[in-house]
Design a protein that fits this description.
Low-confidence stretches: none
Largest sheet: 8 strands, mixed
Distance between the termini: 16 Å
CATH architecture: Beta Barrel
Helix content: under 10%
Mean pLDDT: 90
Radius of gyration: 14 Å
Number of helices: 1
Number of domains: 1
CATH topology: OB fold (Dihydrolipoamide Acetyltransferase, E2P)
Strand content: over 45%
């Protein structure tokens, strides 16, 4: 881990687990999905989702954004760019949607932050 002023400690992707708080990953984006529509007929819910795969020297992780997070982050995320990503929800990955070997995935939420890493 390393500290960057004004940001949570930079943590390797392999160290991200559900009970870890106050972390930031510095990661390259390998790929980004197109926007997709989703629906849950039993609860009458629907919306838009996208995902991207981020990696560092320790591993990779799938990151997903729904609805409002699509509006906030979809245009910002570009393959081959490097970002500081923090304050996402970490859960067990859903195998049918997971493009990585990581057993966890991150979900963007209203507190999430993504900044382009210029350094």
């Amino acid at each position: 881990m390393s500290n960057t002023p004004g940001r949570a400690p930079v943590t390797s992707i392999s160290a991200i687990v559900p009970y870890l708080d106050n972390w930031t990953i510095k990661a390259h984006v390998r790929s980004k999905s197109n926007l997709q529509e989703w629906t849950k007929p039993e609860s009458n819910l629907n919306g838009t989702v996208f995902s991207f795969v981020a990696f560092d020297e320790s591993g990779e992780i799938n990151i997903r954004g729904f609805n409002q997070q699509v509006n906030r982050f979809y245009e910002l995320i570009l393959p081959e760019k490097v970002y500081y990503i923090s304050k996402c929800s970490c859960n067990l990955a859903k195998e049918e949607f997971n493009e990585t070997s990581n057993k966890y995935e991150l979900t963007l939420n209203p507190l999430s932050t993504i900044e382009v890493a210029d350094d």
